[in-house]
Predict the 3D structure of the following.
Amino acid sequence: MAPRERASNRSDEPTFYAGLEPFTEFAEVADPARYVAAPDDWIVVLADIKGSTRAARAGRYKDVNLVGAACITATLNVTRDLDLPYAFGGDGATVLIPPGASNVVADALRRTRRLARNGFGLELRVGRVPVQELRRLGRAVLVAKYQLSPGNNLAMFAGGGLELADRLIKTDPDFALEEQDDPEPPDLHGLSCRWEPYRSLRGHMLTLLVRPLEPDSLALQREILRELAAILGETPGSARPIRAENMRFVWPPRGLRAEAVAVRGRVPYPLYWLGIWAQSWLQALAERFDLKIGAYDAPTYREELQRNSDHRKIADTLHMVLDCTDAESVAIEAYLADLHAHGRIGYGMHRADRAMMTCLVFSLEQSRHVHFIDGADGGYALAALQLKAQLQACGSAQSQRAGSHSGSGMNSASPGTGVKRP
């Protein structure tokens, strides 16, 4: 079944994502009928940290994750009236925005780039690519909506557009976000990183990146998800990295300094740090005794947190963080290696004893919060090294074919794909 057509591609449709019907079973993530083509005049905004591998190897991957999540936070905080699709990538992020939000989002991300540089010593690359340009080059940006819980959704992306946009902002300066002087700090309220890393309960945390190299890549994603379910015994959800048994809140949180640097805005650092130090003490008290203090209900929040994590998603490439036994991990690697040997996928893996989480809290009262998950000690950034090496080893012709078909394989320039130009 093909992705659904949209009625039109007008720029006055800022609600196209808000109007998508969400699905609640992750098994539907590779169903092409769940995907809708983004409007032509919307814009893919991408940000990633240059040198994230070096930062990870220097023990600074938590800062890398925080800055990546900050790009989403800054964008959402200046577009509060819009429901926008976004994806966290460990060392960066992707957000799809309407043309009317382009200027305010550009300003927000310039401010975030300056904060990354001055507050964390990290260099943030930011770029914008119109969906229309990606379609002209033969790629689609297809979007689906996965509901974690009521009011909390994750966007899924297919069509190959995100992969191409990522390459364009790294190779073509015309798509890079230009530098401008702006002394204002970004609005990062809602961003936090207070929980301890989540230790594996089953063996180790396995971070996976899997990029299909076949024309109908959503069909291949379905095949891969079925095999992972068989290896894991039930579904990939049975190996979710966040569980009640490995949730630990230690006071004072180790991430408090980074949170203060990122979120304080114009408030002096010592004053802001003192405020969240006291706030986190109350949170620790609530966690220790299962209390409700103000809007923070510790037992309810922990239960919601487990549901609202993004440990599995598709953003052209399948992303997963799984708590695996050694035998499961070996079986997964053998399966993916066989697919790669037959030229069907490129993949990257990284093993660690923990997973990390960065939180984005919209409203405690409304139970609206999403949690970005990555493997510790490099996670997605180091898995990406293996994936890139495999794609390069395929040779230039294979790499071009992989790029052309890396999303759903149903790009708008190909006949018979089911995604029609409006």
About this structure: The first strand starts at residue 36 and ends at 37.
